[in-house]
Specification:
Chain lengths: ~350, ~425
């Protein structure tokens, strides 16, 4: 059952990055668009994301609930050491969520739209940066446990783990990944006026993601971040990185050609590869502490709990996932499914 | 302010907000589908207009409920890591099921909000029913987690270790049924009276009277039935608390001396120093009867509990008084509504009738918040009753007070905005022709 639980943990992480990520990215694209394109994007994402908007973000709740039920000790360290970026991230999630609804359900369209738009766009950028910084904090080997601390001061315990250049780079990388996913998704959804816009945005985003990814890895490697060094010295992850590099070429051409099916599948594949590269070399030691690492399985919940959780996840998954797919189909959200 | 107080205030503050948003998001879909059904049956465009107006309300409240709920799911760990480390695996069951129910609700709401053109009318209406059922289910499930804190079960606690964990037994803890029943009825009462009150106010203002009357009737019917049933559920809860958490019952009643044939205090000012209640009204033997069904039963007083296991008596007592009195008032108003509707329809032409219900609009939510204060403050100093103290669960990170201030600022702003948006919705409704 532990395998089932770990599978759902990775599965919800993947879906949150893909769906939630594309959702955040839509706001980032709006932020970096001209006035006319902003209006096009606003209309498109309302149609594309509107019905599934909530569902996209529930994956993070599933993720966090699995963590605290099955891996309580791991979860405790995360929420204690990374309290501050998590709280700021929640602020971002809250403001972004309400702004999205307010701007579509306000009874009047007047000047308050500026505020909603501004709130939606800026929080769309900051939230994924913080989310990336949380992950960066988990792997940058700066976490010091209270009981191990030789000099337990506020900075060392609660700021240093996430407030560093490497975490920040991971944050920027994640935000650009979101923008990339969103641009690729929107190519297939746009009507004629938007089509060219998203092809251009997706091309730019692809370049940005690759460049920032390269900078992050190099910075991590040269400043001796053990997480990155582990990746670079692991054969599997090297193979995966090479594979991802090779896939960039067809991705680039399919984006330029605006072929939505191929570019979406390849973009999804890239995300899958990125997550695999991040997790595989160290698994199950996903939390990197100062001078060591912690296995996610350390202090995991008793087998009885894992078993019940595994069964609930299987049952829950078999109800929710078909419903979600039906929802996507009903609204032709995946237009390509209809275009044969 | 020390860290523990700041963490408790932040938790209380976020919960107080979340409860309002969540209750409306969970009950309003029912009003919406009744109006929708009436439109399908009669073809009366007023019902369609009403359905679409309420639908916007549902969307706005669902999202504010969802984001504040997301924040809460993190805050549990951010503020109480010591609690979550041990309790997480035990009470994971209700949370994971709640997550699933919430997911179903979100998917169904996606169908409902965006399905007016694409879906068959029957299926479309049915997705609205699913929204309501899934919403209430997630409410009931999340109360199970709170019930467990009051009535911990499904594990053995040996030498400070939680062993033999049985998550299903923890889910089916003895406090769950009484709390979930009381909370569900409270959600319907509060939302019913609030929505009915807003429409009553619009009737007083003389705008679209026919529409607002139809809206009022749907909302108040739900609210009144729940308000009339609530005292029964309250009685079940009181008898349950009397056995499981006698100290909470004693605090609710500000009952200090252990005695037989104990009177019930109504109102009164608690003097915690002198351990007495001044200016109260006494009903002889009533507390013994209400708690144990026997006029001469012994009720343990606060003085017989250890000092460090007693909650803040004044807060619990006052909150309890507020809850019961407003609950009683709404029950009477509910009966009054049914009587008027049955025998004296002409009273509905009087302004006083509408003034009464407009006045009662906030009563349900005040009572509901007061009720949660009773159960949460009444549980202190325990975060897990008799197992773990709240102070041992709080995060070691100092400076929580700043995070508390941030939440106060953001949620206050959010409330003002949502209220303003609702006013604009009503204004837009009143400006349109039906």
């Amino acid at each position: 059952m532990l395998t089932v639980v770990l599978f759902f943990l990775c599965f919800s992480l993947l879906l949150y990055v893909l769906l939630g990520g594309a959702d955040f990215g839509a706001g980032i694209i709006e932020l970096f668009s001209s006035k006319t394109n902003q209006d096009i994007t606003k209309k498109t994402i309302y149609r594309v994301m509107g019905p599934v908007w909530e569902a996209n973000h529930i994956w993070v709740i599933i993720l966090i609930v699995i963590l605290w039920i099955a891996f309580p000790q791991y979860y405790k360290i995360m929420v204690t050491s990374l309290h501050i970026p998590l709280t700021l991230m929640l602020l971002g999630i809250t403001l972004r969520g309400v702004a999205f609804v307010f701007r579509h359900y306000d009874a009047y369209e007047d000047k308050s739209q500026y505020v909603y738009n501004w709130m939606f766009r800026t929080s769309s950028l900051f939230t994924p940066i913080l989310l990336g910084m949380v992950f960066g904090g988990m792997v940058s080997s700066k976490i010091v446990l209270l009981e191990d601390a030789t000099n337990p001061n506020f900075y060392a315990l609660y700021i240093a783990p996430w407030f560093n250049l490497f975490s920040f780079l991971v944050g920027i990388f994640f935000a650009s990944l979101c923008a990339f996913l969103s641009a690729v998704l929107l190519i297939g959804e746009a009507d004629e006026e938007g089509y060219a816009v998203y092809v251009r945005k997706a091309s730019i985003a692809t370049i940005v993601v690759v460049v920032i990814g390269f900078i992050t890895i190099s910075y991590g490697y040269f400043s001796n971040v053990p997480f990155v060094q582990g990746i670079v010295s692991n054969t599997t992850s090297i193979v995966l990185i090479l594979l991802s590099g090779i896939c960039l070429l067809p991705l680039w051409f399919s984006v330029r050609k605006g072929s939505s099916i191929i570019s979406r599948s390849l973009a999804g594949l890239q995300v899958l590869l990125i997550i695999a590269v991040a997790i595989i070399p160290h698994f199950p030691n996903i939390l990197m502490l100062e001078g060591g690492s912690l296995s996610i399985l350390e202090g995991k919940a008793p087998d009885a709990v894992i078993k019940v959780l595994g069964i609930s996840l299987i049952i829950g998954g078999s109800v929710i996932i078909p419903g979600l797919i039906h929802l996507l189909k009903s609204f032709k959200l995946i237009k390509i499914l209809e275009r044969k | 302010m020390d860290n523990l107080d700041a963490a408790r205030l932040q938790m209380a503050f976020t919960l107080i907000f979340h409860i309002v948003f969540a209750c409306i998001g969970m009950v309003m879909p029912f009003f919406m589908i009744v109006a929708h059904k009436k439109w399908l049956n009669t073809g009366d465009p007023i019902y369609l207009k009403l359905t679409k107006t309420w639908q916007k309300g549902v969307a706005i409240f669902f999202v504010t409920g969802a984001v504040s709920g997301t924040a809460l799911s993190f805050e549990l760990g951010l503020l109480w890591p010591g609690f979550m480390e041990h309790a997480g695996p035990i009470i994971g069951m209700p949370f994971s099921l709640e997550g699933a129910a919430f997911f179903v609700e979100a998917v169904a709401l996606g169908f409902y909000l965006y399905g007016w053109k694409n879906l068959s009318p029957k299926f479309h209406w049915f997705t609205g029913v699913i929204v309501g059922i899934a919403g209430v289910s997630s409410g009931i499930l999340v109360v199970a987690a709170n019930g467990w804190m009051n009535a911990p079960s499904g594990f053995d606690y040996i030498n400070g270790e939680f062993t033999n964990i049985d998550p299903i037994k923890a889910l089916l803890n003895p406090a769950w049924f009484t709390q979930a029943l009381h909370m569900t009825l409270a959600a319907f009462t509060a939302t019913g009276f609030a929505v009915a009150g807003i429409h009553a106010f619009q009737i007083l203002r003389g705008k679209h009277i026919e529409l607002h009357k139809k809206a009022f009737k749907i909302a108040i019917t739900f609210g009144a039935i729940a308000a009339i049933l609530q005292p029964i559920s309250g009685d079940i809860s009181a008898k349950d608390v009397a056995v499981r958490q006698p100290v909470k019952l004693a605090a609710m009643e500000a009952h200090y001396e252990t005695d037989k044939g104990v009177p019930l205090y109504i109102g009164g000012i608690v003097d915690a120093e002198k351990k007495e209640v001044n200016y109260k009204i006494e009903i002889p033997n009533a507390l013994s009867f209400l708690a144990f069904g026997d006029f001469n039963a012994e009720v343990k007083g606060l003085n017989d509990f250890p000092e460090d296991e007693i909650p803040n008596v004044a807060i619990v007592h006052y909150a309890f008084q507020i809850m019961v009195s407003l609950g009683g008032l709404m029950m009477l108003a509910g009966i009054f509504f049914f009587f008027t509707n049955w025998k004296k329809k002409q009273w509905m032409d009087k302004r006083l009738f509408w003034k009464l219900f407009a006045f009662l609009a906030p009563a349900g939510f005040i009572a509901l918040e007061a009720g949660w204060i009773v159960t949460e403050v009444g549980r202190q100093p325990w975060i897990i009753h008799k197992i773990m103290r709240t102070k041992d669960a709080v995060t070691p990170m100092p400076g929580i007070v700043y995070s508390f201030y941030m939440y106060v600022a953001v949620y206050t702003l959010l409330t003002i905005t949502v209220t303003w948006l609702m006013i604009r919705q009503i204004k837009a409704l009143n400006e349109t022709k039906i």
